[in-house]
Design a protein that fits this description.
mainly beta, 4-stranded antiparallel sheet, 24% strand
Length: 315
């Protein structure tokens, strides 16, 4: 199975900076949502299931523990599309994400209308918009046409939370790049609105990363197309951002679609406890401590697209 030439030719027509002011690194929080309630079918079930889950979390008080936001990393691009399926034809093990946004300062009540934005690398460690950056180790080239490679938008997108604070994404299990462990980036926005297919205005309440258990990630990476990227994978305990706090540090709850066949995919869930009045830029170290200043020597290299925002120096 090849990763090249399998995604739709979608381009970023504009990369406008979001209206985020203040620049203060603030707190967000993370707590796990029970798998059964988190993946009860939406439409009718979203009402009772998600409300019950939020009430249960509020009773336990677990989502009231706030966690410092972590770096957004060097591969963020604004202007991502509002869409449930972010794959654009990218090949990999299917991953369904169900994320619930609650107000950790108000009894863990759902934050209706919150915009959850995620982005992550493909099976070989490449990010759309930065596909000339070397993911480390040995990996096939992301695209044979280098002149347009950085115009792609795969594995990036927004979803707007429903009345129960729930968003759902269809994507693939991320690959890895040196020197990071397998992860997904995310931001929670409030106060803006959908416009021209993306999300505009408002403020960022939380910037974080989601992580995967080592045993599951390492099993996935033996499968095609992941196995075509060889090199030294960074385990959770050795990651510069993950701080070992489990769910409170962004570790996803995963369940295999088919226990005997991991290639069939996984379902992942977590509850994001945020402060809707807080605001941050995504520039903080947080979580696992402050990443080293400057890009590490074995970090991905390459030049971001000319019209992209300047990248963070940390990974």
């Amino acid at each position: 199975m090849s990763m090249t030439g399998n995604h739709k030719d979608t381009t970023l027509t504009r990369r406008r900076a979001l209206a985020v002011t203040g620049g203060t690194v603030v707190a967000g929080g993370l707590a796990v949502a029970g798998y059964q309630s988190a993946f009860a079918d939406t439409t009718a079930a979203d009402g009772a299931g998600a409300s019950a889950s939020a009430a249960s979390t509020a009773t336990s008080g677990s989502c009231m523990t706030l966690m410092t936001s972590v770096t957004e990393g060097p591969y963020y691009l604004d202007g991502a599309l509002v869409r449930k399926d972010i794959t654009e034809g990218k090949k990999g093990v299917p991953l369904t994400l169900r994320l619930t946004v609650v107000d950790a300062t108000d009894g863990c009540t759902p934050v209706s209308g919150a915009a959850v934005e995620i982005w992550h690398c493909d099976a070989w460690g490449y990010y759309s918009g930065y596909t000339t950056a070397n993911p480390g180790g040995s990996a096939p080239a992301e695209s044979e046409d280098g002149s347009t490679a950085d115009d792609s938008t795969y594995l990036r997108g927004y979803q707007i939370a429903n009345a129960n604070g729930v968003v759902k994404f269809e994507t693939i299990f991320p690959g890895w790049y040196t020197p990071r462990t397998c992860h997904i980036h995310l931001k929670v926005h409030t106060g803006g609105q959908k416009e021209d297919g993306t999300y505009e205005g408002g403020k960022v309440n939380y910037t974080g990363q989601l992580f995967f258990p080592d045993d599951i990630a390492e099993e996935i990476f033996t499968l095609e197309p992941y196995s075509r990227h060889s090199g030294s994978y960074t385990a959770l305990d050795d990651d510069m951002v993950y701080d070992g706090g489990g769910t409170a540090s962004g570790l996803l709850t995963l369940k295999a679609v088919h226990k005997a066949d991991p290639s069939k995919g996984y379902k992942g869930s977590i509850t994001l406890g945020v402060d809707p009045d807080a605001e941050n830029t995504g520039a903080g170290g947080g979580g696992g401590g402050t990443p080293p200043s400057g890009a590490p020597g074995d970090a991905p290299t390459g030049t971001p697209p000319g019209d992209a925002p300047s990248a963070s120096a940390s990974s």
